[in-house]
Amino acid sequence: MGEGWRWDDTLFAGAAPHYARGRLPYAPGLADALARALRLDGTGRLLDVGCGPGTLGLELADRFAETVGLDADAGMVAEAARAADRAGLAGRTRWVHARAEQLPLGLGTFDVVAFAQSFHWMDRDRVAATVRGMLRPGGALVHLSDWKDEPRPVGPLPHPPVPQDGIDALVRRHLGPVRRAGRGLLPDGTPGGESLVYARAGLLGPEKLVVPGGRTLERDADDVVAGVLSLSSSAPHLFGDRLPLFEGELRALLREASPSGRFSVRQPGSEAVLWRRPVA
User: Fold this and answer.
1) What is the mean pLDDT of each run of 10 residues along the chain (280 residues)?
2) 65 neighbors 101 (Cβ within 8 angstroms)
3) What's the pTM?
């Protein structure tokens, strides 16, 4: 992270109720692709670090005997537990409210450890080294993100696109020109270079697995508002008592962009980078 930024527990405060609705789903077929690459057979254990409301963990839960999700935000853990109960997976899942830096927490060993768009928020070298020790020999670490190099399809969409530039400008008008993150600022964004971190931890890789997206998804105004409020850079708590004003202006912007209240978005592809703990 940038100099001077420190993690604090307000990073995603209030965002959890908006997350499941606001975030775009993973590419179709991701669970099957991971099951083939990792030879998942319904046994073994999965640890989902930075699990959010259980998005990835619940999608993979039927491929493991036990799934453990860990997140530093209490709201996210509560949402994940409720989602697991609705899906009939409460008996096969466990949700832990803790920071990744607190691992191993007596959780035991795992066949797979996943970081789904969460690793950048952590003390990465420390967490990678700890997680390596929690993997069984030959076990896999999965680093999941959107596929950044995916070719974008061209052609008309059935509805207007989400007015992202206008949304970004509105957020800056309310919260200032520098990206917010918890109680701090991230002028340079979040770090990359995770491959070097995993290699330093003694993991073998990378193996890249790409699952294309590209489907056209329909979103309504409530979906778009939820997506904005699910982000750390525009989490509800950052607006304080001005949140109703911000949401009202956001909805006005969306009505202007699409009087029907419908938007079209391209579903992103998913890129999973696999790293293995050496057998010997």
Assistant:
1) 80 95 93 97 97 97 97 97 97 97 98 96 97 98 90 83 98 97 91 94 97 91 98 97 98 98 94 95
2) no
3) 0.94
* pLDDT, position 165: 98
Q: How far apart are CA 90 and CA 154, in angstroms?
A: 42
Return the exposure string of 167-189: e unless at least 16 CB atoms fall within 10 Å of the residue's CB, then b: beebbeebbeeebbbbebbbeee
Residues 154 and 126: their CA atoms lie apart, in Å, by 43
Q: What tens digit of pLDDT does each residue of 19-69 get? A: 999 999 999 999 999 999 999 999 999 999 999 999 999 999 999 999 999
248: its two tokens? 């009202």
Which residue is listed with tokens 């009087």?
A: 259
Structure tokens at 247: 């949401």
SS (H, E, C) the chain: CCCCCCCCCCCCCCCHHHHHHHCCCCCCCHHHHHHHHHCCCCCCEEEEECCCCCHHHHHHHHHCCEEEEEECCHHHHHHHHHHHHHCCCHHHEEEEECCHHHCCCCCCCEEEEEEECCHHHCCHHHHHHHHHHHEEEEEEEEEEEECCCCCCCCCCCCCCCCCHHHHHHHHHHHHCCCCEECCEECCCCCCCCHHHHHHHCCCEEEEEEEECCCCEEEEEHHHHHHHHHCCHHHCHHHHHHHHHHHHHHHHHHHHHHCCCCEEEEECCCEEEEEEECCCC
Greatest Cα pair distance, the chain, in angstroms, is 61
Rounded-to-integer distance, Cα 210 and Cα 229, Å: 28
- C-beta separation of 112 from 182 below 8 A: no
In this predicted structure, what is the pLDDT of residue 2? 62
